[in-house]
């Protein structure tokens, strides 16, 4: 029986460990700068791949990430599994009913968002194949079809994330964008699956007609009969098996088998797992907790490993072709933005909103990269075009958030934890009276922000006299607006005995937040107060917060307790 | 670059899908008969392996589970990863502080539970190697050392599960068993790691002394310095990264790297991941939610896949040697039970309790099987002895629960959901008054149990007159003890409008459980009442329960809401 050698196992585990660690690290760094995590994850792979680590230490790279033999095959199997599971999660996010609820305008934006870029992409690739980066020897028809699809796909996860970041997810515009993206995703993947089928790489020999028939048939069966059966099976499984193991096992086994089926008919495993995800995610019987277990393990373990593995395969510097990147980016953006904006305008939106729809839908994200990778590994495109597609996907995703924000004049919601520093964290406060507490915290805040401590204390006490600031639940938030302040400053005090802040529930305050905001910033104070109240709603969390040793633990607890 | 073919990917995904589905299914079946899930999981592998599927359809087996080529290597990599993660979870369950809290008696039981079976196993294997199943050409010393270790290891997860099932986990006896098993596990694995090191299979060339030094050094560093650093790092990571991705990524990356290190020095990857798990699990900063995500994904996806893969490797019928199984089982049980019972007796326990300690510690479970598999793949033992070890592990695990139960005269706690049938589930009840509701539910219960409905209603109403049975929170539990009843019967009624059952909180009852218990069964009624109160504590759950369509959905909801 063939098995991995000790040396291959050592290299495989180490490779997975360093890839995961660096992908997560750079992913977090990217988020810190308000960039998508996938950017950092791919960058981690580029660092470990031929581009950097391979160029500096070729022997190290050959050991860790071998291109031949058992280690390479095992890593290939693992990344295939990783992407299959990633598409399961992506599919679970698709909510078909949203499309119908949003009605005609969603359908028209969704359809225009496919048809216009598809037509533009097809025309450009058919008439100017050299400029679009076609490799010599490729079939012009399949190449043009692929490019047309690649340019018309949207990235539902990126769009959803952007809308959540901007607090737009539940707005009319947000739901419209989501609905259009769902439609776009579904149709885009079906077209791509058909193109892959045309390549004839199936494990069995099928004619194009058979492949298309099987693909569409499988899609229809999964989204009707399969969806219904899953919805009936889930409560039965929950009732008659251990929790949550029964449902988890069912969901994963179903996904793997659907993936095996689509791989078998030649349209790649991920199409099956995506559809399985759509069918599973649609059931109201799939509990939030089960979703969370699958989502978190896949999003934070498998997805980073997969995206980092992309960087391992290609030299991103040697294959960087600025002209090609520019052309691909331009055509992709032109088709998508104009198509969607036009549809938005025709559905009766104003100019600003319809531009927002266009740039919102323009995000390509991970989906584009996955599509490009499949095309690369099937010999449909070369490394140069693959690199251009990756850059296009990242650039459109990066631009989408800031452009939406600017077009709609939005601001990111501020978190109260962003404004507490080590200096302004008083634990425990020695104060017993409200006046003492305010004075002590005013000094801490003044020191942290370089203000006049007495002036701060006076302003806060004056505000406190007007109306007490006990919020209830053992939390108080004395506050003041100060001239000359550039950004909010918060001092936090933890009191073991509790201080009376005259709260509506008469509960003495043990968590006291002194909030200073700039005079000119109208919303800051209310925003921060609302965030404090929402973040500290759970009694357990408030009790645990009183036992922390320092600010780091305090922030860690607030974060782990917050909805996300 | 080597990669898997479409046909290999199809087979790999299908193999994982059917293995997972059948392992989970048989695992659940095993639990239904109060057997450990691992038994069903291994059985699933035996069915798909050479023993059954391979004998019936050799070509099918070669396609699905190839022994050579890319598919075999990818599957090997995946099962290696699966077991590495399984040991991470096993390690996370180890709580070192328990050992010290239980003090001397835990240490003496733990030590005796290693020394006595080790000595007995070593003596038997050294003097009677043929009877103990040594292969020709093996080193007698290493063989005797391995068998001694194999016979002295305990299975912490099985012991913990057995104690939880019997409601003994938090008792003195339970904590003593856990503490002794933790010590046993830790020492046992260190000895085994050293033996593996002696085989000289490391990726680097090391002397025995170096291997032992590195192994012990790594253990000490991980459990002191590593543990401390992890405990400090966790809150920092939680505070400065996305939740829970930062901690998840850190935990997994650390585990993979520790596993790579121990594989590199020749003591197998799982030793490193086990120690990483101990160090991680020991930190109070590792949140319950993060543990749950890792635990659930690994226990319900990776573990079943791994245990099923064991059955794939060996023909369990051809290699079944009844005499060898008997000898191994006898010596294993003799050494463990006598060693631990004696230590228990010497620490001042009574005879019954010390026997309970002996049989409690005798469970070998998954740990033994993993050890056997490593020995098999390293050529230390043959397939015959491996099969005998698997049978011994399963038999000792199976016996442990029932023997403990009998020795300590225990009963399993009963769940109220076990006694509701489709016939006794009334949704919605048309009753408006308490009397009507009791009469209606009495008829449903009587029909389900074949009793005289009027007699039931009279008995319950009589009891209700003595004292109202509204429990509060919108739940009522009218009840009666009936002569001639063999087992409890419960009828459940859901009322949309609520019926006054004179509850302490004056809340009208919407969930009404009519409970009938046998006259001779003293505890049943209280047990069921307590279970109802505990299971329905969450308001959200009670609200959802009122909207179910049938009993299956009702049971599914109660189950998913219950603590486990």
Automatic annotation (TrEMBL), chains A, B:
Membrane topology term: Multi-pass membrane protein
Superkingdom, taxonomy of origin: Bacteria
PROSITE patterns reported in the protein's UniProt record: PTS_EIIA_TYPE_2
Cellular component terms (Gene Ontology): membrane
Keywords of this entry: Ion transport, Membrane, Transmembrane, Transmembrane helix, Transport
Transmembrane segments: 37-60, 72-94, 106-128, 140-160, 175-199, 211-230, 250-280, 292-310, 322-343, 355-379, 385-404
GO biological process, any: proton transmembrane transport
Gene3D superfamilies: 1.20.1530.20, Mannitol-specific EII, Chain A
InterPro entries named in the record: Cation/H_exchanger_TM, CPA2_transporter, Na+/solute_symporter_sf, PTrfase/Anion_transptr, PTS_EIIA_type-2_dom
PANTHER family in the cross-refs: CATION/H + ANTIPORTER, K(+)_H(+) ANTIPORTER 1
Protein name: PTS EIIA type-2 domain-containing protein
Natural source organism: Syntrophotalea acetylenica (Pelobacter acetylenicus)
Source organism phylogeny: Bacteria, Pseudomonadati, Thermodesulfobacteriota, Desulfuromonadia, Desulfuromonadales
């Amino acid at each position: 029986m063939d098995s991995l050698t000790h040396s291959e196992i050592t290299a495989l585990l180490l490779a997975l460990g360093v890839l995961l660690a660096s992908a997560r690290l750079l992913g977090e760094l990217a988020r810190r700068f308000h960039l998508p995590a996938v950017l950092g994850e791919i960058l981690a792979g580029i660092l470990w791949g031929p581009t950097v680590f391979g160029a500096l230490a070729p022997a190290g790279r050959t050991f860790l990430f071998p291109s031949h033999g058992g280690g390479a095959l095992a890593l290939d199997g693992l990344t295939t599994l990783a992407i299959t599971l990633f598409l399961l999660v992506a599919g679970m996010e698709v909510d078909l009913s949203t499309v119908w609820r949003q009605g005609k305008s969603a359908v028209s934006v969704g359809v225009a968002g496919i048809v216009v870029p598809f037509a533009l992409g097809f025309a450009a690739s058919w008439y100017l194949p050299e400029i679009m980066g076609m490799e010599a020897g490729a079939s012009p028809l399949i190449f043009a079809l692929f490019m047309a699809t690649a340019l018309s796909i949207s990235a539902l996860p990126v769009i959803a994330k952007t809308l959540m970041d901007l607090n737009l997810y539940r707005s009319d515009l947000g739901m419209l964008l989501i609905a259009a993206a769902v439609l776009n995703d579904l149709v885009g993947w079906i077209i791509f699956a058909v193109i892959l089928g045309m390549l004839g790489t199936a494990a069995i020999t099928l004619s194009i007609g058979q492949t298309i028939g099987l693909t569409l048939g499988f899609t229809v069966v999964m989204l009707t009969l399969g969806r219904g059966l899953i919805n009936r099976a889930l409560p039965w499984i929950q009732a008659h098996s251990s929790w949550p193991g029964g449902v988890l096992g069912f969901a994963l086994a179903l996904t793997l088998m659907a993936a095996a089926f689509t791989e078998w008919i030649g349209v790649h495993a991920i199409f099956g797992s995506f559809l399985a995800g759509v069918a599973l995610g649609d059931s109201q019987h799939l509990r939030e907790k089960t979703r969370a277990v699958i989502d978190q393990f896949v999003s934070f373990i498998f997805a980073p490993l997969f995206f980092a593995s992309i960087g391992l395969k290609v030299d991103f510097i040697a294959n960087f072709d600025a002209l090609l990147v520019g052309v691909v980016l331009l055509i992709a953006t032109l088709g998508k933005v104009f198509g969607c904006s036009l549809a938005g305008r025709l559905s009766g939106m104003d100019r600003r909103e319809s531009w927002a729809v266009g740039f919102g839908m323009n995000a390509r994200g991970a989906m584009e990269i996955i599509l490009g990778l499949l095309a690369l590994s099937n010999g449909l495109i070369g490394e140069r075009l693959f690199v251009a597609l990756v850059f296009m996907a990242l650039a459109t995703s990066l631009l989408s958030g800031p452009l939406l924000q600017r077009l709609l004049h939005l601001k990111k919601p501020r978190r109260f934890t962003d404004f507490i520093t080590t200096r302004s964290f008083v634990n425990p406060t020695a104060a017993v009276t409200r006046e003492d507490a305010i004075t002590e915290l005013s000094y801490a805040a003044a020191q942290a922000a370089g203000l006049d401590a007495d002036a701060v204390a006076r302003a806060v006490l004056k505000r406190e006299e007007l109306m007490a600031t006990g919020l209830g639940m053992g939390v108080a938030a004395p506050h003041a607006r100060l001239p000359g302040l550039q950004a909010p400053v918060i001092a936090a005090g933890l009191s073991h005995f509790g201080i009376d802040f005259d709260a509506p529930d008469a509960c003495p305050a043990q968590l006291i937040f002194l909030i200073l905001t700039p005079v000119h910033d109208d919303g800051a104070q209310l925003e921060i107060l609302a965030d404090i109240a929402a973040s500290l709603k759970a009694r357990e969390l408030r009790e645990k917060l009183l036992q922390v040793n320092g600010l780091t633990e305090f922030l860690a607890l607030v974060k782990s307790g917050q909805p996300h």
